[in-house]
Design goal:
By secondary structure, this protein is an alpha+beta fold. The chain is built from four helices and seven strands, in the order βααβββαβαββ. Strands 1-2-3-4-5-7-6 form a seven-stranded mixed beta sheet, sandwiched between helices. The longest helix has 13 residues. It is globular. The two termini are 15 Å apart. The N terminus is likely disordered.
Length: 183
């Protein structure tokens, strides 16, 4: 599965931005200019139990980074319009005491949300493809897997992730089902 777009990455250092060109959507590293637009995005009321809000995600990213961990938060944009948020992690930080074993030395799709006003347009699928393209540049070093977790009742997420080859392991991260993808 591939998008018929040109994708360009620039990762000269950990602090560098993630530049990507895509005629449909693109990812932008969260920064002082776009954070406020990303914080305004929300899922529908019935989806709120499936994904943390973007403000909580930003707090979690900050805590991970200040605790010797890795977090890569990106806004999902169609042109200049924010439509969603995705966050990628690597390994575990100093304070994540109950991390699942799969977290050790692997990447994870920590968060993916598309705003309620922009759903059902294929943005989630494209964002997942772009996130996996980023992960496969191995910005924190080589890894064998990308893992994620989701609420068992979230059948839409389960189907999306399965369409990319994520396989449930039977393990859980809290109450969420873990699925893994061989990189």
């Amino acid at each position: 599965m591939s998008l018929s777009v040109e994708i360009i990455f620039d990762f000269s250092s950990r602090e560098s931005g993630f530049a990507e060109v895509n005629k449909m959507i693109h990812l932008e590293k969260i920064n002082g200019e776009n954070i406020w637009d990303i914080l305004k995005l929300n899922v529908s009321d019935i989806q709120k139990s499936f994904v943390a809000s973007n403000d909580i995600s930003m707090i979690e990213a900050y805590i991970a980074i200040t605790s010797n961990g890795y977090a890569f938060p990106f806004g999902i944009f169609e042109g200049n319009n924010p439509v969603g948020f995705v966050m990628i992690g690597y390994d575990k930080d100093d304070y994540w005491k109950d991390a699942p074993a799969i977290a050790d030395g692997n990447y994870n799709l920590w968060r993916l949300m598309i705003d309620k006003n922009h759903q059902n347009r294929g943005y989630g699928k494209q964002a997942l493809e772009l996130a996996l393209s980023f992960i496969r540049t191995f910005p924190c070093g080589k890894a064998d897997y990308c893992w994620l977790s989701y609420e068992p009742e979230n059948v839409v997420a389960k189907a999306l992730y399965a369409s990319f080859g994520f396989i449930e392991t039977g393990e859980k991260d809290g109450e969420e089902q873990i699925a893994v993808l061989k990189l």
